[in-house]
User: Fold these one by one.
Assistant:
Number 1:
Amino acid sequence: MSITDAPIAEDRPLWPTLYKGWCRKCPNCGSGPLLKSYLKVRDTCTVCKQDLSHHRADDGPAYLTILIVGHILGFGMHFAYSHYRPDPLTFFTIFAVGCVGLSLYLLPRLKGVVVAFQYARRMHGFDDDPSS
């Protein structure tokens, strides 16, 4: 059997899987929690027993968070400064709180999305799943 004769596993549906990751749910069943603390991914799903220890999220969610928050707040800062010219302390306070709040909101959701993307594309050991 050559490499070209080997059966190719089809990708799992991407968008429903990414939505499950955004909701911080298991990318396989969609009902078990993906995270066991703020950013720690469970080793296995508590509902369907899907092995999640293969994920390699590493720094990806942090980079995506910085990219999204930077673009949103960069535009917001430019708009606020050019239209309203707020007091510097007010300007700093609003955007510092906005930056921290938006970062804390997005980081676990983007970690779920990165893990779900890896699951959907059968990356890093997710292709050996016997239930798929």
Note: The chain has one domain: 12-125.
Number 2:
Amino acid sequence: MGDVSASLERPLRADAERSVRTILEAAERVLARDPGASLEQVAQAAGVARTTVHRRFATRQALVDAMSAAAVEQLAAAIEAGRPETAPPLVALHEITANVLRVKVSWPFALASSMRPDSPVAEAQRRISRRCVELLGKAQAAGAIDAAVDLDWARRVYYALIGETLAGDDASDPDALAARVVDTLLRGIGPRPA
């Protein structure tokens, strides 16, 4: 009997997860267009009742926090998919950049939302920043980045390049954009030797 009830609960949990994911994705679309949109507008975009959104997220801030957490979780997965520990540093940097661009295109509102510095999402973002510096350190050790470069400064420049890329370019080809970001980070904008 316990096995039957456990198997009946699984689809409900999976269904609940799909419902939450649908709400979060709809909220991203709606709030990216109109940051002042109501939870009712989010529910309508998600194709669920307003009470469903309120049952899952007690407040608008709880919804925004959940969106940020989902986006940062996807960023962390995008970084892992680039194999920063095992791939050659420049290969990993390119792959991670393309993956991050894909995630950032999908979550512009959630990733731009400010959060409490003591929140789990803020801590996850700090871990991502540390991993970025570690990867840049590997690229530096491989000779792709000058030995005198401050790696935290390089990380900040890298983040700025990604942000500006998304602000001004069509992100339909993340691999091409990643190549531009990495090339600009590593070689700058000065003239190339002939």
Note: Residues 61-194 form a domain with the Tetracycline Repressor; domain 2 fold (CATH 1.10.357.10).
